Amino acid sequence: SRNLLLPDGVPPERQWARFYVKIYRAEGLPRMNTSIMANVKKALIGENKDLVDPYVQVAFAGQKGKTSIQKSSYEPLWNEQIIFTEMFPPLCKRIKIQIRDSDKVNDVAIGTHFIDLRKISNEGDKGK
C-alpha cells in the first residue's frame, strides 16, 4: 500500500542512507572581546576572553552533531566528519552549519550557514 504521508515524487520504499558532512577549517573569526557578549562574559565569570574556543555544530533532519573544540584559535583546523543516518531521499532539504564559541556560561553562535541539498545533488535515482 502507498504511504499517503509522503509528498508526491517521493518513493514509498525509501532506503536508509548515510550523509557525511566533512568540516575542514574556519578562518577570519571575530575577536569576541570587541562585542557586547564579551562584556556580559566579564560580568558573569570575571574574565575578558579575547580568544575564541570554536567548534562547529551541524543539524540535519532533526539530528545534531558537532566537532571537537579548538582552544584559543581564530583559524581552527578540524578535518573531522559528522555522519547522519536518514532515509533517502531526505525530506529535510537543508543542512544547518553553525560555528560556535564554547564557553563556561553560554555557548555563543559566531556564524550560521544553510546548505540547500537541491543545489549540491543531481536529480534521479542515484542522487549523486
TrEMBL record:
<keyword id="KW-0472">Membrane</keyword>
<dbReference type="GO" id="GO:0030672">
    <property type="term" value="C:synaptic vesicle membrane"/>
</dbReference>
<keyword id="KW-0677">Repeat</keyword>
<protein>
    <submittedName>
        <fullName>OTOF protein</fullName>
    </submittedName>
</protein>
<dbReference type="InterPro" id="IPR037721">
    <property type="entry name" value="Ferlin"/>
</dbReference>
<feature type="domain" description="C2">
    <location>
        <begin position="1"/>
        <end position="128"/>
    </location>
</feature>
<keyword id="KW-1133">Transmembrane helix</keyword>
<dbReference type="GO" id="GO:0048787">
    <property type="term" value="C:presynaptic active zone membrane"/>
</dbReference>
<dbReference type="GO" id="GO:0035612">
    <property type="term" value="F:AP-2 adaptor complex binding"/>
</dbReference>
<dbReference type="GO" id="GO:0005509">
    <property type="term" value="F:calcium ion binding"/>
</dbReference>
<dbReference type="Pfam" id="PF00168">
    <property type="entry name" value="C2"/>
</dbReference>
<dbReference type="InterPro" id="IPR000008">
    <property type="entry name" value="C2_dom"/>
</dbReference>
<dbReference type="InterPro" id="IPR035892">
    <property type="entry name" value="C2_domain_sf"/>
</dbReference>
<keyword id="KW-0812">Transmembrane</keyword>
<dbReference type="GO" id="GO:0007009">
    <property type="term" value="P:plasma membrane organization"/>
</dbReference>
<dbReference type="InterPro" id="IPR037722">
    <property type="entry name" value="C2C_Ferlin"/>
</dbReference>
<dbReference type="GO" id="GO:0016082">
    <property type="term" value="P:synaptic vesicle priming"/>
</dbReference>
